[in-house]
Prior knowledge:
Low-confidence stretches: 1-14, 88-92
CATH topology: Methyltransferase, Cobalt-precorrin-4 Transmethylase, Domain 2
Strand order of the largest sheet: 1-2-4-3
Mean pLDDT: 77
Number of strands: 6
Shape: globular
Strand content: 25-35%
Number of domains: 1
CATH class: Alpha Beta
CATH architecture: 2-Layer Sandwich
Order of helices and strands: HEHHEHEHHEEE
Helix content: 25-40%
Radius of gyration: 16 Å
Number of helices: 6
Amino acid sequence: MPEAKPTNNDSASADEGVQIDLISGARMDGLASMEKIRLILDSVRDGKIVILEEGLSPEEESRLIEVTMSEINPDGFTGLEIETYPSTQAATKGLLDRIMGRESTKKLTVIGPANQIKTLHKDETLISALVSRK
Length: 134
């Protein structure tokens, strides 16, 4: 499949809008935990909204928050907003999984700059967010 190449109009529209990166589970599977965190954090620092098809493990999510907190800067980066909801498979996991505390990473996760994304509503089937241009 041919690679998409930006045109002169694309660069202008990128300055006027919000870029959303949809990252597949297959791409994330090949990365170590810190590589995932760096990929996400670098994208969010660039002002992009990141949507993960399969989410992060609870440990990875905690580490992402830790790294984010260490990089917050009053003159620039204000942190990130993260919202996650489990897939229907995760909601119907077996009794043994629940007893053993196993959590599925099969969940959709939306991550974006704290100063650009505001969660308006969240329930088990919908995340509604308001995204602003810087």
